[in-house]
Amino acid sequence: MTENSVTTVHVAVYDTLADWEIGFLTASVNSPAWHRTPGRFRIRTVSAGTEPVTTAGGLRVLPDLPLDELSPGDSAMLVLPGNDLFPTPAYAPYVAKAREFRAAGVPVAAICGATGALAMAGMLDDHEHTSNAAAFLDSLGYAGGKLYRDKPAVNDRGLITGKAQAPVEFARAVFAELGIYEPAVLDSWYKLYGRQDAAGYYELMGA
């Protein structure tokens, strides 16, 4: 397999990143188990700087790539985990990169505080979306309230948003957008992890 045959999903990493919100997503994208095309997808981390960052759970992560070197043409998706930085200027480079991705037609997936950053930047004003709660986004003074949907995760034209309390549904929306799994396999995956139904495990084992 050549380097060019690998499809990369970029995950933004920064101090205060909410580890638990992307665990299902990163583990499954980076693992070939049950993938439609085993070995096609991989995760790479990207950050505004090159120094290690510390997640909310205290894990130290060394970014694979600086944000200014990331081109939408080299990525299948930009994932923005929840964080405490979104109301500050420190998060501006990530919003700018998200805009660049969307302008190029490349999907962006944001969860928890990252949805707040996109809301503040006006990026949710013309897309159906969700977040931790409607009141959370309303408190930020955004103009997209009419398109808020009280669902665990929403995908509107390649812009995926998710609630902090719904990491499994957020991951499922990402997998569906990327086409990582056959639909029946994705249903079994969600049956196991989303509904805690052991039947999903046996279905996956037989897939």
Automatic annotation (TrEMBL):
Alphabetic keyword roster: Glutamine amidotransferase
UniProt key word Plastid: no
Superkingdom as given in the UniProt entry: Bacteria
Family matches, as Gene3D superfamilies: 3.40.50.880
Record-annotated DJ-1/PfpI domain positions: 9-175
UniProt keyword annotation of Ribonucleoprotein present: no
Matching InterPro entries: Class_I_gatase-like (IPR029062), DJ-1/PfpI (IPR002818)
Full protein name: Type 1 glutamine amidotransferase family protein
Organism annotation: Kribbella lupini
